[in-house]
Amino acid sequence: MTRYDLFRRRIAPIAFGVAVAFIAYDSCHKHDHANATFVFDFGSAALQVRSIDVDVVVDGETYSHFNRNALEGTTIGPTKFSGGLPSHDGQLKIDVRLPTGTRHLVRSFHADDGGTITIPLERDLQ
Question: Which domain holds residue 10?
Answer without folding.
Answer: 1-32
